[in-house]
Amino acid sequence: MLSYEPLWATMEKQGVTTYTLINKYNINPRTINNLKHNKSITMYTLERLCQILHCKPNDVIDFTEDE
C-alpha cells in the first residue's frame, strides 16, 4: 500500500504548501488529490516532487504491506 506521509512531513519541514505546488510549480490539482488519497502517481511526478523539495523518493513515498 502507498503512503505519502513522508511527503507531508517533508513539505512541512520546508514550508511548502499544496498551494505552492499548484501555483508556483504547476502541479495539477488532481495530482494533489491523488496524493491526499494515497493513490498512484507517475514516476515523472515523483521526480518533479523530489526536484522541487530537493529530496529523495523515500522522503515522498512509503510502501507498507497490506494487513
Chain-wise SSE layout:
Layout: E1 2-3, H1 5-14, H2 18-23, H3 29-36, H4 43-53, E2 62-63
Antiparallel strand pairs: 1-2
Task: Describe the 3D structure.
Strands 1-2 form a two-stranded antiparallel ribbon. The protein has four helices and two strands, in the order βααααβ. It is globular. The chain has one domain (2-54). The chain is 52% helix and 6% strand.
Largest sheet: 2 strands, antiparallel
Counting H and I runs of at least 4 residues, what is the number of helices? 4
Order of helices and strands: EHHHHE
Strand element count: 2
Can I get a quick summary?
With 67 residues, this protein is mainly alpha-helical. It is 52% helix and 6% strand.
Features:
single chain; 67 residues; mainly alpha; two-stranded antiparallel sheet; 2 strands
